[in-house]
Amino acid sequence: MEAVGKLTNVQLELLKLFQYNLPEKQLVEIKNILAKYFAKSATDEMDKLWDENGWTNETMEEWAKEHLRKK
User: Fold this and answer.
1) Helix (H, G, I), strand (E, B), or coil: what is residue 65?
2) pLDDT tens digit string along 17-52?
3) Taking the domains of the chain in order of start, what are their residue ranges?
4) Which backbone phi and psi does 2 adopt, to 5 degrees?
5) What does the DSSP 8-state code read for residue 4?
6) 11: pLDDT strictly greater than 50
7) In whole angstroms, what is the distance from residue 5 CA to residue 2 CA?
8) How does DSSP assign 5-64, residue by residue?
9) Cβ(64)–Cβ(58) under 8 Å?
10) What predicted TM-score, i.e. pTM, was given to this entire model?
11) What tens digit of pLDDT does each residue of 55-71 get?
12) How far is CA 61 from CA 23, 30, 43, 56, 69, in A?
């Protein structure tokens, strides 16, 4: 991870692509596209973990019932 204050490779690339102001509608559309991309990536990773670990709906129900508070 880079130091705070430096731009990431994604930020630099987006700056190159969007060197001009966009209408609000287009900006919202781009934000939605990026949000969907990252949501899909997270979902894909969770699906992979479910498959690798043999998790089921019952596993999730058991986890929901657990009390993990420290005393």
Assistant:
1) helix
2) 888 888 999 989 989 999 999 999 999 999 999 999
3) 22-71
4) -80, 160
5) T
6) yes
7) 9
8) TSPPHHHHHHHHH--S---HHHHHHHHHHHHHHHHHHHHHHHHHHHHHHT--HHHHHHHH
9) no
10) 0.63
11) 999 998 998 888 776 66
12) 45, 36, 19, 9, 17
